[in-house]
Amino acid sequence: MSAPAFPSLFISHGSPMFALLPGIAGPALRRLGEILPRPRAIVVMSPHWMTRSAEVLSGPAPETIHDFGGFPAELYTLSYPAPGAPGVAAEVIGLLGRHGIPAVANDRAGRDHGAWVPLMHLYPEADIPLLQVAQPATRSPEVVFEFGRALAPLREQGVLLIGSGSLTHNLYELRRGDERADTYATAFADWIWNAIEAGDLEALLDYRRRAPEAVRAHPTDEHLLPLYFAIGAAGKDWQQAARIAGGVTNGVLSMDSFAFGRHATAGSETAPLAA
């Protein structure tokens, strides 16, 4: 019997401080990493590496990029030294091309914090090959969805596909030291989950008009678009979803994540991805 397909994941990576302050979401991701079978490689799409034409990180040992400023010095000492995966990068480029998306290898770029910060919780040993596919410079959920669809076959080949973003992302309202959740952030997160549970892809793609206070939750779209990469990557299995509760940090950043696809195999038993 062939191994089950990996799920695809949407992970809210929040602030770079998530690396040092795991809150609720960090341990939840750690448990998820322990439940999932070990992937042969991980492919991440993050809004912190965005290009007009498709690029795939192909270096054998990409460096950890600290692409942020104004945070404690300790944060800049962190490294996530997972190996690269040039062979998987070639597979990604081939699949994108067959889907009508020309892509090129980039062996010079490093990994941005949208990739390495959540992976520090999901796979803290940093021993699984990790590469990125650049997020397309677009406001269209449909375009990002198609990137995920193109790479969906990799899930059957031991590759974990992750869209890393933020379920809500209004940095203008960020309240450092204030952990009280604003009701609009929770309402928006609940609306997204309810649409996922209902299998309403049309509503999700049209979230900006239909979701409560969507523009307030996302003044710009880029941090929600990785959700559509994860949904597309799940293929027909996307409605088999689990919500991984992460709470709300800084008052406005929902840290919920989602897993799409069949249940992961833990030992000889089949266990749900989240309670």
UniProtKB/TrEMBL annotation:
<feature type="domain" description="Extradiol ring-cleavage dioxygenase class III enzyme subunit B">
    <location>
        <begin position="35"/>
        <end position="237"/>
    </location>
</feature>
<dbReference type="InterPro" id="IPR004183">
    <property type="entry name" value="Xdiol_dOase_suB"/>
</dbReference>
<dbReference type="GO" id="GO:0016702">
    <property type="term" value="F:oxidoreductase activity, acting on single donors with incorporation of molecular oxygen, incorporation of two atoms of oxygen"/>
</dbReference>
<keyword id="KW-0223">Dioxygenase</keyword>
<keyword id="KW-0560">Oxidoreductase</keyword>
<keyword id="KW-0479">Metal-binding</keyword>
<keyword id="KW-0862">Zinc</keyword>
<dbReference type="InterPro" id="IPR014436">
    <property type="entry name" value="Extradiol_dOase_DODA"/>
</dbReference>
<dbReference type="Pfam" id="PF02900">
    <property type="entry name" value="LigB"/>
</dbReference>
<comment type="similarity">
    <text>Belongs to the DODA-type extradiol aromatic ring-opening dioxygenase family.</text>
</comment>
<dbReference type="GO" id="GO:0008198">
    <property type="term" value="F:ferrous iron binding"/>
</dbReference>
<dbReference type="GO" id="GO:0008270">
    <property type="term" value="F:zinc ion binding"/>
</dbReference>
<protein>
    <submittedName>
        <fullName>4,5-DOPA dioxygenase extradiol</fullName>
    </submittedName>
</protein>
